[in-house]
Amino acid sequence: MSTVRLENSIPGGSLTPPASKSAAHRAMICAFLAGGGSVNPITDSKDMQATAQAIEALKNGGEICDCIESGSTLRFLIPVAAALGKTVTFVGSGKLPQRPIGDYLRLLPEHGVTCESEGGLPLTISSKLTGGRFELAGDVSSQYITGLLLALPLLDTDSEIVLTTALQSKPYVDMTVDILHRYGVEIAETESGYLIKGNQTYAVQDFTVEGDWSQAAFFLAAGAIGGDVTVSGVDINSTQGDKEIVNVLKRFGADITVGDNAVRAKKSALCGIELDAANIPDMVPTVAVLAAFADGTTVIKGAQRLRYKESDRIESVVTNLKKMGVDVTETPDGMIISGGTVKGAALDGYNDHRIVMAFAVAALFADGTTTITDSESINKSYPSFFEDYNRLGGKADVISDR
Description:
Layout: E1 2-7, E2 12-15, H1 21-34, E3 39-40, H2 46-59, E4 64-66, H3 71-83, E5 88-91, H4 102-110, E6 114-116, E7 123-126, E8 133-136, H5 142-151, E9 159-163, H6 170-182, E10 187-189, E11 193-196, E12 207-208, H7 213-226, E13 228-232, H8 245-252, E14 255-259, E15 262-266, E16 274-276, H9 284-292, E17 297-301, H10 313-323, E18 327-331, E19 334-338, E20 346-347, H11 353-365, E21 370-373, H12 385-391, E22 395-400
Parallel strand pairs: 2-13, 3-12, 4-5, 8-9, 16-17, 20-21
Antiparallel strand pairs: 1-21, 1-22, 5-7, 6-7, 9-11, 10-11, 13-15, 14-15, 17-19, 18-19
Helix pairs in contact: 1-2, 1-3, 1-6, 2-3, 3-5, 5-6, 7-9, 7-11, 9-10, 9-11
């Protein structure tokens, strides 16, 4: 365990964020199903390690798929393993064993798969998945849909995904469809879901992973609040939903310049906004920090699924903002934030990488010293975060508790 101590400072300069975690998960699985081809670059984070080792287990007849703390790895690979007819046990650590997999526990047995679980992990599956009609809600997790889209083209028969409620986080599914297309697999979108032809073949190719917008967002927010930061290596035409941070920053009134594969954010007078975060839930911690330094009130809604992440991110954000002296009210699906003075404080990282990184941004401009526990949780997605943070002028000192 470790704690990071942060002093306020003015960030400036440029950096390139890590490769997109979301794209890399999908491409690595597609390359596995194609039987070859490279996927580069891949960040050496715990989530990427989880997908790599789980794929190796499936490839080599392993009995255990350890997904560590990666919800994407787990939900993407359960139906893929079932489509391949594997008998395997999925395990994980941290909060992952408690995160929902109920739709799979209902759907997979309807399609020939035996599931042994007490509601979470460990989960043992056996027998081969069969095609047909898969009905599920679109507002629980788009990861279920991505998992099925990766698996169903492998089956002998055609399949249909029918969404019984409106799809949230659709950009993540759009990314899946786009990457599948690049691997030669075609998905047809319908009014109620997706049609997937069976007997499709994944094509071998070399895949270049683009920069990660969700990681770029932390530093763009820092530039907009009180610095001058340029993030390079990001594609404004990306299918990543979190590129929406550019428009969110503009709505706050930020001084944003978009160039070729680069975005610059400069210190601006920010004003509160109302944001429906249904399609960009991972942006909520960053947006909440922006709101704390903005004039007026910001309302964040549509983020109820954040309660089932590495932490209950609504509660985590609200608690930490209150510790920093921010006027904030928790709501069932988000929060209401009145911007004002932000004070340094002793914060809890909740073993949640996005909480640690978002509040490290807040610490840049807080009045006084800030400490955040569980700083090692950044290894889940962005191990070099504090190196980049300090390179831009931040003052972060990570102290081991051991």
